Every structure is written in C-alpha cells, then in structure tokens.
C-alpha cells in the first residue's frame, strides 16, 4: 500500500497540480485515490482481507491516475526532483 504514496505527488499543492491544459483532473484523481487507499488501510487494519477483485480495482485506479499525471507532465518533475535529491546526498 505504500507504493502509490511514494510514487505519486499526493503532497503537492493544487497550484502545482493545476497548471496549463490537462488530460483529466490530476487533483480530483489524486484525491479519489488517496481516499481509496486510506479506506483500504483502515479496512486492512480491521482485519478485512481484500479479494482479488478489490486489489485489481485499486490497482486500475492507481494506474489510471499515474497515466493521467504522466500525460500532464507531473511525474517527470517528480522524478527530476528525486534524482536531484539523491545526487545531492551522494
């Protein structure tokens, strides 16, 4: 469950997510995926075991969000920031 939170820019302010023309609303997709992930964390904490269908739906939502953010150019900026951070710590 950690992977989407570390690979997608959930912590970015709206002003950085909503720049220029978009292929889908990055902000709304991130909010939706965040809600789904938090819901599943709570359900897992309560002992619920997801079905393969549950996992598949969550994975599809995460993949769709990733593709939209990629089309909107937001992931390139994220990977550049990560590369710069790892270079400065080396």
What's the number of domains? 1
Unreliably modeled segments: none
How many β-strands, per DSSP?
0
Oligomer: single chain
Helix-strand blueprint:
Blueprint: H1 2-7, H2 14-17, H3 26-45, H4 52-71, H5 74-89
Helix pairs in contact: 3-4
Descriptive tags:
elongated, mainly alpha, 90 residues, 73% helix
In short:
The chain is built from five helices and no strands.
How would you characterize this protein structure?
- The chain has one domain (22-89).
- The chain is built from five helices and no strands.
- The protein has helices at residues 2-7, 14-17, 26-45, 52-71, 74-89.
- Helix 3 packs antiparallel against helix 4.
